[in-house]
Task: structure prediction
Amino acid sequence: MEEEYRSPVRCIATTRPMCDNHDDGETAAIILCNACGNLCTDCDRFLHLHRRTKSHQRQVFKEEEEAIKVDLHEGCGRTKLFWLMALADSKTMKAMVEFREQTGKPASSSSETCRFCGSRNGTELSAVGSVCSDADCQEYAKSACSKTHLCGHPCGGVKNEDHCLPCLHGCDKNATSLKQDADDMCMICFTEALSAAPAIQVGHLHWWRAGH
Result:
């Protein structure tokens, strides 16, 4: 029996601002930019890649730092806070806790994050987006698709494919078969998220990292 896909549940007030860039009435904002307005995480990252936007002052909402998000994908339960993500797979009995950088200070546009590992050290803009100097990330960049979705997110697949994969950030509302997202773990290696390396789609439902 196919597992039911459950939408994320956010334990926050329903009056929180929506992302001005998405303008869809459903994507919640987590950052206020003095020039761009209220933005979600992904729009904040991509709107501030250019040198012209480096002077923008951005502040993470206090509500976001305290928010809790719980969802279930592919049999894997996941709890996300602003500074931590914990997940466990009921089938393989594997679990992982990831601590994320947190700060109450305004975010600086001069430190873009690597699209694969999230690092801000030695990150430079390349044909496939921001990539750090780490050897693994540089290797991933060689096989990653260089195309960009209409929403502004880079394709998470491999290069030279006939069709790009749907946006893993859930921007394509027509991708009804998408049961996973950028933060979901590769269910084969269970060591990194799908966004941490170029991914492939097997059939219509399942994704995992290329190379497995």
